Amino acid sequence: KGSITYDRGEIFKTPAYRVNAVDTTGAGDVFHGALIYAIEKRYKMTKALAFASRIAALKCLDYGGRRGLSNIKNKIRIKIV
Fold this sequence. Notes:
The protein is an alpha+beta fold. Helices cover about 45% and strands about 10% of the residues.
């Protein structure tokens, strides 16, 4: 469904990426981890949220919580503009 984020007086609505999900186990955790990573890298909030949403969507393409994460490196080709 996406996310709604409140930061410094602004509300950000970020849609979810449509994928043929096979397992959503851990997708929220992956989203939060990717968001923290992007914030630490000083991405603007809109780009940080888009990045986190993409990473969480990629996680959903494989089965398992941790097992699904190992394949993200093979699938990731993300350019934040």
